[in-house]
């Protein structure tokens, strides 16, 4: 047993995890003072969980016998010692802190008690599970979520990778294109030996290699007014990774009609922009894309990547910001970009934010206005 001395405080003996386990088996009380979201990942066998703040505020409520042998454990050994000092100051006489905490206990292969999550889940998402804002409940929400990603290209690639890594349970990916060598400068889902393969099949290879827990629903087709509602069915969040006007207007209109949040992103040369359009769920409060741009620009004013060129990393930046917004929307945390347009200038390395207000006369999202029906977006865009 080693003894640690903290200035001005009572000496609290440290016990190694194996010694602690022996003492517990001999009748010592083991108290895990971590917070509930941390304990949800698993506790040392025999431990009872009491948040440190609750324990030190009213120790007698939880541990009435001040003479009993009490061992305290946290994640790494610091909080347990602080808790022990607080208890010592309140008259507890037989205290010890587990050296290295639950991390050392687990590393030593000592028995753990887990909730109903499996080891793969606990280990894979451990850095999420330690965040109170995500935790076990949030991670389960991600697991149950279905995100529609339209386009497995420059924006869709980083978004799909990170959504899968983060533990989104189902990714629905729609893209009718095949992998071309010129895509590989930015579309990191794909690889040189998959040139010629459909992008959704190539994406399935990459995603399943990264996280086999993520289920991929792959549609090798173009999204049109005929299939858009089928594609949005049972989806929690829609990410527009298409970066072209017909898809953008179609997704906007469908998301307003069906009440789905749309994470919009676009890139051009060295600049990108993104927003969240959530008018379908917040009529008259949040804008839709058409509040901003009621009609598409003329085609000559709106070249796509293949015509204008794009810095390879740029869709990476914007696609990851889209993935960030999608994850926040699923978790219901933070402030979404709804009502704000975020613009990024890679050359100047600057972000600029503009407030967006809903248009009270918007043809699609104005409150009380009936849905005008889908239009032929290809022709609508080509004609302008
Ligand atoms: Zn609108």
Write up this protein:
The protein is of the alpha/beta class and 384 residues long. The chain is 35% helix and 19% strand. The chain has 17 helices and 16 strands. Helix 13 links the parallel strand 12 and strand 13. The site of zinc ion (ZN) has 10 residues, from helix 14.
Bound molecules: zinc ion
Question: Could you tell me the strand content as a percent range?
Answer: 15-25%
**How are the strands of the largest sheet arranged?**
11-10-9-12-13-14-15-16
- The overall average pLDDT, rounded, is 92
Shape: elongated
Distance between the termini: 80 Å
User: Tell me about the biggest sheet?
Assistant: 8 strands, mixed
- Count helical runs: 17
- What's the β-strand tally? 16
Radius of gyration of CA atoms, rounded to a whole number: 27 Å
Fraction of residues in helix: 25-40%
* Weakly predicted, low-confidence segments: 1-6
Structural class: alpha/beta
